[in-house]
Amino acid sequence: MITNSIFLGMIGPWQIAIIVVLVLLMFGGKKIPELMKGLGTGIKEFKSATKNDEDTDE
User: Fold this and answer.
1) Which range of residues forms the domain containing residue 49?
2) From the CA atom positions of the chain, what is the Rg in Å?
3) What is the pTM of this model?
4) Which of 17, 32, 53, 57 has the most neighbouring CB atoms within 10 Å?
5) Which residues contact 23 (CB under 8 A, 6 or more apart)?
6) 27 CB-near residues (< 8 Å, 6+ apart)
7) pLDDT surpassing 80 at residue 6
8) Signed CA dihedral, 50, 40, 27, 10: sign only
9) Structural domain total, the chain
10) At how many degrees (to 10) do helices 31-57 and 13-27 cross?
11) C-alpha distances in angstroms, 5 versus 11, 14, 15, 50, 54?
12) What gap in Å lies between CA 42 and CA 36, rounded to an integer?
């Protein structure tokens, strides 16, 4: 719990803005929605795989 508050204290609004700008410069505005869609699909597949694994364990 202490490490979470330390970590959150180190990241401020300027750091988040810099990260967003860097991501936009690296990937461009058109590529970001494709990346997020792929990330969402991957997370969805991971959740369904872990759920199926838990069902087979029982």
Assistant:
1) 2-57
2) 17
3) 0.49
4) 32
5) 32
6) 35
7) no
8) negative
9) 1
10) 100
11) 10, 18, 16, 30, 33
12) 10
Secondary structure of the chain in the HEC alphabet? Answer: CHHHHHHHHHCCHHHHHHHHHHHHHHHCCCHHHHHHHHHHHHHHHHHHHHHHHHHHHC
List all residues 6 or more positions away from 35 whose beta carbon is below 8 Å from its beta carbon.
27
56, 47 contact by CB (below 8 A): no
- Tokens in use for 11? 């990241």
Q: Summarize the confidence of residues 28-37 as an average pLDDT.
A: 85
Residue 41, pLDDT above cutoff 70 = yes
- CA 42 → CA 2, 10, 17, distances in Å? 31, 29, 26
